[in-house]
Amino acid sequence: MSIREDHNRFKQIVRGKIKENFKKYITHGEMIGRQEKDFVKIPIPQIDIPRFKYGPKQSGGVGQGQGGPGDAVDGEQGPGGGQAGDTPGEHVLEIDVQLEELADILGEELKLPRIQPKGNKQLDITRIKYSGLSPVGPEGLRHFKASYKEALKRSIASGTYNPEDPIIVPIRRDFRYRSYKNVVKPESSAVVIYMMDVSGSMGDEQKEIVRLESFWINAWLKRHYKGLETRFIIHDASAKEVDEKTFFSTSESGGTLISSAYRLCQKIIDEEYPLDRWNIYPFHFSDGDNWSGEDTRLCLNLMKEFFFPRVNMFGYGQVESKYGSGQFLKDLEREFPNSELLVTSRIPSREKIVDSIKDFLGKGK
To answer: What is the pTM (predicted TM-score) of this model?
Structure first.
């Protein structure tokens, strides 16, 4: 069996282990902290890889000389004075897994439909395409096989090739280099704008639920859009745009005006994301409290008049807390009972994150 086959088999074993414990990975955030660019380090328990251990020759042990009860086999620990344990030790191996692979597993486990980008919203991306060979070029692009073939042809044509001593020494005119050109390709692009209530009723556990959900939402959207941008808005009675770290670590107090976040989101879309080039996904997470019915009516009007004509979907996730009334979700469901663009989800605890992800992504928007 080749090394490639061994590697592929090991990848399949790892994939099986991830799928076996997938719900645990979704609801625990340890691995998100181990994210590095397009990879995530995942702790995989108990993958046993067989191996042989060889001891010194003629040094005793099984099959050589007399042995007594309790004698240690060479290389192993002898009797000790401690108490025997009744549980096995756990061997944990950290594996680098591509985000694309995690997204595929997410789709398989939750039976998510593929996303069809809305309309013809694409960006022109310039990429390098290697298109042939050239007698000139940078040394970093020298093509060894092609250069060798040119040297061999020259050697045979000149009569200097000796099959008994087949030494080929390329000269400058034999060198061949990979040639390339810039190619403009349209690629579907999307922006995800996360909004979160950070007023006093949203505690650390609620923010952790939002962090986990946003990680998996991003992983799935990146699988379908080569260009994905992410923006973050926090709000209590006022809203501001922040970076990702601030988004998940900020604690505020005071009242809640949801419309402040929606207005800022509106401004960002208007100024930076032309509708003919971007697929737009706003997600708002809150415990459902709002300052007043008047502000709620303002939010509903913004959804109907601004967001719905422009977005692929608008996601609202209500993270339950003992201080939140949950009223905003009731208002949304009453106002838009059959909307194809508004997707709502109740998230009472971490254990319901899997269901919530399927709520948001299960329509293939």
So the answer is: 0.67
Task: Provide the 10 A C-beta neighbour count for residue 146.
Answer: 16
Collect all residues with Cβ–Cβ distance below 8 Å to 78 and sequence separation of at least 6. Answer: 70, 71, 72
Q: What's the start-to-end Cα distance of the chain, in Å?
A: 43
C-alpha 79/C-alpha 155 separation (Å) is 72
Per-residue pLDDT averaged across 132-150, rounded? 83
The encoded tokens of residue 130 equal: 């290697």
Helices 3-20 & 99-110, crossing angle to 10 degrees? 50
The CA–CA distances, whole Å, from 95 to 36, 98, 152, 321 equal: 12, 10, 45, 35
Six-digit token string for 185: 């390709």
Cα–Cα distance measured from residue 319 to residue 313, given in angstroms and rounded to the nearest whole number: 19
CB 103 within 8 A of CB 223: yes
Sign of CA dihedral 28, 31, 32, 38: negative
**Helix, coil or strand: residue 18:** helix
Q: Is 242 exposed, middle or buried (0-12, 13-18, 19+ CB in 10 A)?
A: middle
pLDDT digits (tens, 9 = 90+) for 226-254: 778 999 999 998 999 999 888 888 776 66
DSSP assignments along 314-341, one per residue = EEEEEE--TT---HHHHHHHHH-TT-SS
Q: Tokens in use for 102?
A: 């995690």
Please report which helix (H) or strand (E) contains residue 205, including its range: helix 204-224
